[in-house]
Amino acid sequence: MRVLIDYRPALRERSGVGEYTHQLVRALLRTFPRTATDGLLDLTLFSSSWKDRLQSLSDVAGARAIDRRVPVSVLNFAWHRLRWPPAEALAHAEFDVAHSLHPLVMPARRAAQVITIHDLNFLTHPERTRGEIRRDYASLVHEHARRADRVIVVSHFTATEVRRQLGVPADRISVCPPGAPDWTPRAAAPENGYVLFFGTLEARKNVGGLLDAYERLVVSQGPPNVPELVLAGKATDSAKPWLDRISHGPLAGRVRHIGYVQPTERRALYEGARLLVQPSFEEGFGIPVLEAMTLGVPVVASNRGAPPEVLGGAGLLVEPEDADGMASAIQRMIEDEPFAAESAAKGIVRSRQFTWDLTARRVFDAYQQAIDAHRH
User: Fold this and answer.
1) What are the pLDDT digits (tens) for 238-250?
2) Residue 267 φ then ψ, to 5°
3) Which of 224, 197, 194, 222 is nearest to 208 (CA)?
4) Dihedral angle sign, alpha carbons of residues 169, 170, 173, 177
């Protein structure tokens, strides 16, 4: 099976979609090596950028690489609006599957077309999006979802939304959640650990709501009794009011923004945390929740979107717009050590149900279903 994957989400700073893309490629190469006699997979990674080059990566060395010096915005406009040029023309090769890791298809002459939809927040709340996502996704996703031979989603929550909002029948959807990292659980929680938020600082992550909850704790409990809050993730333009806020008043000196965290540094970031708080208005999956559980970090997460599905009862769920409820949940995880330890232990067990090898097998099956659908 000859597969072309759009690797561009993983080309630069790997956020959720980029991490999913990179780890999926690794898992496909590991699970279906070219030397295998059963389930042979010939994988090609596609990249285009005017500035960034697709470097030789040792952990995806089994894949071929196609690197074109074409600006991302130019190619995306041509692909999304004009359905040109076909992937085969850019790669100078033929493929059985062309896989886009976002909701809009990669044009192809003969290859089956597969898209991955991580969430539909851009449809329900376009005001929380920016750039090309705001310009193209909402207006084109219905058509592209109909054109795709197979739609991959990362959670049952997203599968339900794709059926409800886009009208894609269940028999054209494959649920392929991400896997947990291959980390050994930490020996114990740090005595002076911090409260951790991990994700891009953007509107849908509800950073403002988290700051409201944390400020309530600082004011009611006193600064010495509340662990430091660490905001880890790239700041977008919408983050400016939050960054201004943490430099004044009761949050000054209590909240620290450390910016984007390289993949090689993420384990250490989690290991230093007392707990993880992910209060997003909506998540299609929530990779930080799974990563934290893998190490035994207790989790407080939003009760909206996919986090309840990922946690599976291994942590506390909160209403993202209820700052008092969020503050109470954080306080319980800090003060009730037996409960926090129980949540951490449940999280470790729960995380073992998510493996990248299983993801790879599900995606491979989706490719075969797309090929069959395309032929007929």
Assistant:
1) 899 999 999 999 9
2) -60, -45
3) 197
4) positive
pLDDT in tens, 172-229: 999 999 999 999 999 999 989 999 999 999 999 999 999 999 999 999 998 888 999 9
Whole-prediction pTM: 0.95
Pick the CATH number of 194-351 from 3.40.50.2000, 3.40.1350.10, 3.40.630.30, 3.40.50.300: 3.40.50.2000
Asked if residues 106 and 99 have their Cβ atoms less than 8 Å apart, the reply is yes
Q: In what order do the strands lie in the sheet with 112-117?
A: 64-68, 42-48, 2-6, 97-100, 112-117, 150-153, 173-175
Classify strands 2-6 and 97-100 as parallel, antiparallel or unpaired.
parallel
Query: What dihedral do alpha carbons 75, 81, 87, 89 form, nearest 10°?
Result: -80
Assign residue 249 a region: left if phi > 0, alpha if psi is -120 to 50, beta otherwise?
left
Q: In which band, very low, low, confident or very high, does the pLDDT at 57 lie, cut at 50, 70 and 90?
A: low
Measured distance CA(78)–CA(138) in Å, rounded: 17
How far apart (Å, rounded) are the C-alpha atoms in residues 340 and 300?
10
CATH topology (fold) of 2-179+355-375: Rossmann fold (3.40.50)
Contact 198, 288 (CB under 8 A): yes
Decide: 329 and 339 in contact? Cβ < 8 Å: no
